[in-house]
Design brief:
heterodimer; A: alpha/beta; UDP-N-acetylmuramoyl-L-alanine:D-glutamate ligase; Protein-Tyrosine Phosphatase, Chain A; globular; B: 250 residues; Rossmann fold; six-stranded mixed sheet; 14 strands
């Protein structure tokens, strides 16, 4: 029996979702939740209680959407009915909208699992409402400081969220990230009953020799000494130890070895005696894949089943997406902070095929209003092995981007208008070559909307 | 003196710890704009414990850090750098300090609990912990005494400290948009001789080539040939016009 107020909230929320899809405003990924919560503030918690199996939360700076999608796919294949906030709507309204999708018009609820990517700063409230069975914490990079305050504060917020996990829940933590590791150590010391599952990469062959400029967590979270990195994989994630001996990378319960990168087409590695692979390019996706595998392990899924299922997953929307235009291949990627951007540039360099780029920089709230981070991106890579031929800067802060490129010794064309910028890229890429579109969050949504209108991509609420 | 016009040494204080808001952009701008004029440039990173070579530095840069990092450099600054920096200022070296670095150049930083942490006192300013953070784009009208053309400077601020100026400094400018030093008296930044302190990052120097050249000319002790700054000024004007017209979109 559904309480009348919850029923009213569900009906109003679902109506709002239908309406916003009809008028084409981004597929109703947050509006239904907003409407429902105004009628019944506990809509999320009340519906989450009705999930027959429970919830999984995914947080961290980079890779949330991809990891969530991988986990959702693992659970769907069981088979199970999964509700998930797939479109990157990772605040409470987005979570509420997601659970509303599992509710029928009579208030009857039909879903087993909820898979939610959670904005780092809202983890404590998400844990309180959703009482998850597992929480994955990937990396903690500097991102949108204007919105969140500082990295240390964010780490404390995440720690507070994990501390409130229900009995028997598992924290699935990236051992290679020093800030995430410290969260786990502190939780382990204070709370014996919380299960922690550590994962990490162990393959020097794919490491880089030194920390990139954009690395944030260079110092020991305990004593402040500069950490020694034996290996660096992505940003400041790697194999580290404090010279004073008070801190180092935790022992991994699941360790990925023999990592094989196949450009932007895929990544594979060995973990727990099986070989896991997916059609996701870049070393950063090795972390996402491993995080999903570890979560599946925490939830009791069989390794063989996971290998099969993960191998079939397409790239998450917009994070890395491809389309064809008159015989030319284009890749659209989200690049929203220095660590993420550098990984993508490194990947383009590794490919040796990255010659034509459209770079989009917006400074709306969802992008982060402070654009100074672009000075920590190693755009110099584009002048190296990449030898970029086409560089077009677009978005609200196109001039800042072009200026950054000028000081990296590169010349970019400024075209603030996205539509015209896209045309320029499409014209510039010769037949048989590939174009890359790297954008901050809202610029990516705008580019995507343009591509949908031109028929090159599907709308994101259907992917 | 090394500032002969042919060589420039940039001293980057705590480049690894105090580099949170794209401060590297300020270094890159100083380096490139000096190189484009045929000056040979060396960047000397002055991390914890390092003080060798301070005597040869022509221009220092000290950026902002997270609270934790700021605590880490604090003792080191007082113990191994303060006196050497004061000597460098005596011989006319230039200094640009942003955000946390700016606060540490002042007399003290007073915490929310009322404790006063002494700074190195190169600038006659004092900072008091504030409540709400001042975050957003800033446009200031630079102090007329600096003779900058265009008059405006643009940047982004993100600080909770409130800085108040003493009599020994001039403000870098008056706020036209944003909060500046304290959100009360309309001042932003502080200048004394060749020392420039400010809350503006963004990075500060790339979009303010006129300020960069002022600092470089002070460091090199000579006039500089003009460069083609059309892209720099386009970026400057784009943000200035948006902020002053109040047409920002959420």
């Amino acid at each position: 029996m559904t309480p009348p107020r919850l029923l009213a909230a569900v009906l109003a929320g679902k109506a709002a979702g239908t309406a916003s899809r009809l008028v084409g405003q981004g597929g109703g990924t947050t509006l239904p939740g907003l409407v429902a919560s105004r009628i019944e503030p506990r809509t999320l918690a009340l519906l989450a209680e009705r999930l027959t199996a429970g919830s999984v939360l995914i947080t961290g700076t980079n890779g949330k959407t991809t990891t969530s999608r991988l986990i959702a796919s693992l659970l769907q294949g069981l088979p199970a009915r999964v509700v998930a906030n797939r479109a990157g709507a990772n605040l409470v309204t987005g979570h509420t909208s997601a659970v509303l999708a599992g509710a029928g018009l009579t208030g009857r609820f039909r879903a087993d699992w909820g898979v939610f990517e959670v904005d780092e700063a809202t983890l404590p409230s998400a844990v309180a409402e959703l009482k998850p069975r597992a929480v994955v914490v990937g990396n903690l990079f500097r991102d949108q400081l204007d919105r969140y305050g500082e990295l240390e504060m964010l780490a404390l917020t995440i720690e507070r969220g994990l501390e409130a996990l229900p009995e028997g829940a598992t924290a699935v933590l990236n051992a290679d990230d020093p800030r995430t590791a410290e969260i786990g150590y502190r939780l382990g010391e204070r709370r014996g009953r919380l299960k922690i599952l550590w994962y990490g990469l162990d393959d020097p062959a794919v490491a880089i020799s030194e920390l990139p400029h954009a690395a944030d967590a260079r110092t020991c979270p305990r004593c402040g000494s500069r950490l020694d990195f034996r290996q660096v994989y992505v940003g400041h994630d790697g194999d580290y130890t404090c010279p004073t001996g008070d801190f180092g990378r935790p022992e991994r319960d699941l360790s990925a070895t023999s990592v094989q990168l196949d450009g932007l087409d895929g990544v594979r590695f060995t973990v727990g005696g099986v070989q896991v692979g997916a059609a996701l390019g870049g070393l950063y996706n090795a972390y996402n894949l491993l995080g999903a595998f570890a979560t599946g392990t925490a939830l009791g899924l069989k390794p063989g089943y996971m290998v099969e299922r993960l191998g079939e997953v397409p790239a998450a929307f917009g994070r890395q997406e491809r389309f064809l235009h008159q015989g030319r291949r284009f890749t659209l990627m989200l690049a929203k902070n220095p660590a993420g951007f550098n990984e993508i540039l490194r990947e383009a360099e590794r490919l040796g095929g990255g010659r034509h780029f459209l770079l989009g920089l917006n400074d709306r709230i969802a992008d982060g209003r402070d654009v100074s981070w672009i000075w920590d991106v190693d755009f110099e890579l584009l002048g190296g092995d990449c030898a970029a031929e086409t560089l077009i800067a677009t978005g609200v802060r196109a001039y800042d981007l072009a200026l950054r490129l000028k000081y990296a010794g590169l010349k970019a064309t400024v075209e603030v208008d996205l539509n015209r910028a896209l045309d320029r890229l499409l014209e510039a890429v010769p037949a048989g070559a590939e174009g890359f579109i790297l954008c901050t969050y809202t610029a990516m949504l705008d580019v995507r909307a343009l591509l949908v209108r031109r028929g090159s991509l599907r709308p994101y609420w259907r992917t | 003196m090394s500032a002969s016009g042919q060589r420039l040494t940039i001293g980057w204080l705590y480049s690894d710890l105090m580099n949170i808001y794209g401060d590297r952009g300020n270094i890159q701008t100083l380096v490139q704009r000096a190189r484009w004029r045929g000056v040979e440039v060396r960047v000397l990173e002055l991390g914890k414990g390092a003080s060798e070579g301070i005597e040869a530095v022509d221009v220092f840069f000290f950026g902002g850090g997270q609270d934790k990092e700021q605590e880490l450099v604090y003792d080191d600054l007082l113990e191994t750098k303060a006196i050497r920096l004061a000597n460098a200022m005596q011989r006319g070296a230039a200094f640009l300090a942003v955000c946390g670095g700016y606060q540490l150049l002042g007399h003290y930083y007073q915490t929310a609990q009322g404790e006063r942490l002494p700074g190195i006192g190169l600038l006659d300013v004092r900072t008091v912990a504030g409540g709400q953070r001042c975050i957003g784009d800033v446009v200031i009208e630079s102090d007329p005494g600096l003779g900058l053309q265009p008059r405006t400077l643009v940047g982004f601020e993100n600080h909770s400290g409130r800085t108040y100026l003493g009599e020994g400094v001039r403000p870098l400018g008056r706020v036209r948009r944003g909060n500046g030093n304290n959100g009360e008296d309309g001042s932003e930044g502080a200048v004394s001789g060749n020392i420039f302190g400010t809350y503006l990052h963004g990075s500060l120097l790339p979009k303010n080539p006129h300020l960069t050249d002022l600092i470089l000319s002070r460091a090199l002790n000579r006039e500089l040939d003009p460069l083609d700054d059309s892209l720099e000024l386009a970026a400057h004007n784009w943000i200035k016009d948006r902020e002053l017209s109040g047409s920002r979109r959420a």
